[in-house]
Design brief:
mainly beta, four-stranded antiparallel sheet, 428 residues, Neuraminidase
């Protein structure tokens, strides 16, 4: 058997014995597939530096490692390929112009006829298609068909259920202005940035494809929105855009990842973190930083190595963060003593401050994905809800959790279509 683990491929006997390194890869390897005759291997490679996926190939002896379809799609966004049983075709998924479809490339030619090496798109239409698997006789392809759509809902403690919020728009990553009159959000699944009044009026689109937006936050004076942005083949960077619209401004040079911006109460600085899995795979490469918006100088909070997802408290005294090692626990930096302390021992994500700054909300990473809040003053931990029976939309950062103006829990409910389809095809 062959299996992937991090930056390596390993071979192992079917009884689990004699695990040996088969090849070392430049990125994170997954989805390995042997050719039917066993002479070569193809797999998907995720490159954290460019935030892209591509298909790679090597021979059965572990040599001649090289990209497959090099230069065909720039930047590459291919994944999850499989050979047909007769080895004549290789089918895979490719993302172009923001949508994913199934493609096929001829591998073998007929007698006295050379096969075209140009991939051919097999699917197109209102739904996206993923992960093709040929049937044993090669006459059908089984694919996952997805039409993504979400509904923003809020948890109501009185009824114990979720109800549409802001007319149930298909959105995630909400943030409200300090005066509570305005909201900014990321449209799902387009990943474009918007702002509007809370009643839905004066709606304005602030970014467009192929740029993807995430984690927007209002400046204290309500004039600017800081957010994470990414373009195909590029890392996440922090930008500013005027609440009245205009061209987003990139704040820092370089090609390192930048994530989770947060404003200081006076609006002169931004706290931000890194994305550990885009930082060379080492926890120490990630840390919590502060950008002075006037001087453009960047400083690092002491003792923040290996931490991510910073959140500046409303009063400016604390920065909450999450450890990025084996466990994702909540920690707190106190500016009065310049020291980090542990808030909880529960693994969690999507940390959010209550509007009064007394509580930190987060979602646990156990099997139930419960929502908790911890009181900063005495570390009292309280379970808020367990949204087990709600099918949640998977956005840019997974199943998002946020807070409404009254600190009630917001999630994006998945109301799209996800089905397995059988496609009949006649291969020449």
């Amino acid at each position: 058997m062959l299996y992937a683990n991090g930056h390596s491929l390993y071979s192992v006997r079917c009884d689990g014995a004699e695990s040996l390194k088969f090849a070392t890869t430049a990125g994170l390897a997954w989805w390995p597939r042997w050719s039917p005759e066993g002479s070569s291997l193809r797999f998907t490679l995720y490159d954290p530096a460019s935030n892209s996926t591509s298909l790679w190939e090597l021979s059965a002896d572990g040599k001649n490692l090289h990209p497959w379809l090099s230069g065909w799609n720039s930047p590459p966004q291919e994944c999850c390929g499989n050979w047909t049983p007769d080895g004549k075709y290789f089918v895979f998924q490719s993302t172009r112009d923001g949508r994913t479809d199934i493609w096929a490339r001829r591998e073998k030619g007929e007698f006295l006829r050379k096969a075209s090496r140009e991939p051919i798109r097999l699917t197109a239409g209102p739904i996206e298609t993923f992960a093709p698997v040929p049937s044993p006789d090669g006459k059908r392809l089984y694919v996952v068909g997805v039409q993504r759509h979400g509904e923003l809902v809020r948890y109501e403690s009185r009824s114990g259920g979720f109800m549409p919020y802001l007319s149930g728009i298909s959105a995630e990553h909400l943030d409200f202005s300090r005066d509570g009159r305005w909201v900014t959000y990321v449209a799902y699944p387009e990943a474009t940035l918007w702002r509007s009044k809370v009643d839905g009026t004066e709606r304005l689109q602030l970014t467009s494809s192929p740029m993807r937006a995430a984690e927007p936050v209002w400046s204290p004076d309500g004039k600017w929105i800081a957010f994470m942005r990414s373009e195909p083949g590029r890392p996440w960077k922090i930008c500013l855009v005027s609440a009245e619209g205009g061209t987003p401004q990139r704040l820092m040079p370089g090609e390192r990842s930048e994530a989770n911006p947060g404003w200081s109460p006076d609006g002169t600085r931004l706290v931000f973190g890194r994305i550990p899995w885009m930082e060379g795979g080492t926890a120490g490469a990630a840390a919590i930083h502060v950008l002075d918006l006037k001087t453009k100088e960047v400083s690092t909070l002491p003792g923040s190595e290996g931490l991510m997802s910073p959140r500046w408290s409303p009063d400016g005294r604390y920065v909450a963060a999450i450890t990025s090692g084996q466990n994702w626990t909540q920690v707190l930096f106190d500016f009065t003593v310049l020291k980090w302390t542990e808030l909880t021992k529960i693994d969690g994500c999507f940390n959010r401050w209550s509007r009064d700054g007394k509580y930190l909300y987060f979602e646990s990473l156990d099997s139930r994905f419960d929502i908790f809040r911890v009181r900063v003053s005495d570390r009292h931990l309280e379970e808020i809800l367990a949204p087990q029976n709600v099918r949640r939309a998977l956005g840019l950062e997974g199943a998002w959790v946020g807070l409404a103006l009254d600190d009630s829990v917001l999630i994006t409910r998945d109301v799209g279509i996800q089905e397995i389809y059988a496609l009949d095809w006649e291969a020449p």
